[in-house]
Design goal:
The chain has about 270 residues and is an alpha/beta fold. It contains ten helices and eight strands. The chain has two domains: about 100 residues, Rossmann fold (3-Layer(aba) Sandwich), CATH 3.40.50; about 150 residues, Rossmann fold (3-Layer(aba) Sandwich).
Length: about 270
């Protein structure tokens, strides 16, 4: 088994993101271990021993992706029997030369509370998404940056929350349900904010699978019902010239990126 360690004196999110991106190119299984907040020599020694133990047990040197600012802590971890990859210094050293500025090494800068105003903005965006989820309230639609619409279980809620948490975008979402299908039109709150609307759709068989996980063998999850709802909602999107996206084969990260690309919404976080 090929072990992979993500080690950081912060959250380890940066090491994980970089590492996952690189390893996704290799079609083999990995046993992945994340160890955040390695900020002392004692913790660094514990990490080194754990990596060495895995090397002995597996017979294969682990991969080590790290983002550690403190040189002493970093050197202690690097004594481990592993193939090490330093994401920070790989880019920092050449950037210092290109910018003519010496980097100021400090932990917890990327995912910490360095800018409280931006952090508060992101939390407010998350609260907005929660308060305006699934059409529970339409009173704040004037404050929304975007309103996602579509049938139930097509990805509106997770996308709204991801846009809020990752980019500070105030995203509301509104579902079209079975009772709407007889005479499907845009309700007044959506008409009043028509320029903010973005539709999500999905393949009927995929929607059927998702709904069956929620309400197995129900009319709500029946393939015929999924086909009917999706057909009528997509027709509404076309009639009203509402941009929409098929989410069937896309992750929430990909859906969000495609929405930002097509709408031109500004990413609020810096």
């Amino acid at each position: 088994m090929q072990y992979v360690f993500y080690v950081s004196d912060g959250t380890a999110i940066t090491a994980e993101v970089f590492g996952h991106a690189v390893l996704s190119q290799f079609p083999i299984p990995f046993e992945q271990v994340t160890i955040p907040f390695v900020g002392s020599l004692d913790k660094a020694r514990q990490v080194r021993l754990r990596i060495d133990e895995c090397a002995v047990q597996s017979g294969v040197r682990p991969l080590l992706f790290h983002t550690i600012v403190d040189p002493a802590v970093r050197e202690q971890v690097l004594q481990a029997n592993a193939h090490a990859h330093d994401f920070l210094n790989t880019f920092v050293t050449p950037l210092e030369q290109q910018l003519g500025i010496k980097a100021e090494a400090r932990s917890h800068r990327t995912h910490g509370m360095e800018n409280t105003a931006l952090y508060d903005e992101r939390i407010e965006a998350v609260n907005f998404a929660l308060s305006n989820d699934d059409g529970t309230s339409t009173r704040e639609y004037d404050e929304a940056d975007i309103i996602l619409i579509g049938v139930s279980r097509c990805g509106k809620t997770p996308t709204s929350l991801y846009l809020a948490l990752q980019f500070g975008i105030r995203a509301a979402n509104y579902p079209f349900i079975a009772q709407d299908m007889h005479d499907l039109t845009l309700p007044l709150p959506l008409k009043a904010n028509r320029h903010k609307l973005f539709g999500l759709t999905i393949a009927p068989d995929r929607l059927c699978d998702i709904r069956n996980q929620r309400r197995a063998n129900s009319q709500y999850a029946a393939l015929a019902q999924c086909e009917l709802e999706l057909g009528r909602v997509e027709r509404l999107f076309r009639q009203e010239a509402i941009p929409f996206l098929d989410t069937t084969s896309h992750s929430v990260e990909e859906i969000s990126a495609k929405i930002l690309e097509r709408t031109g919404l500004r990413r609020q976080l810096r």
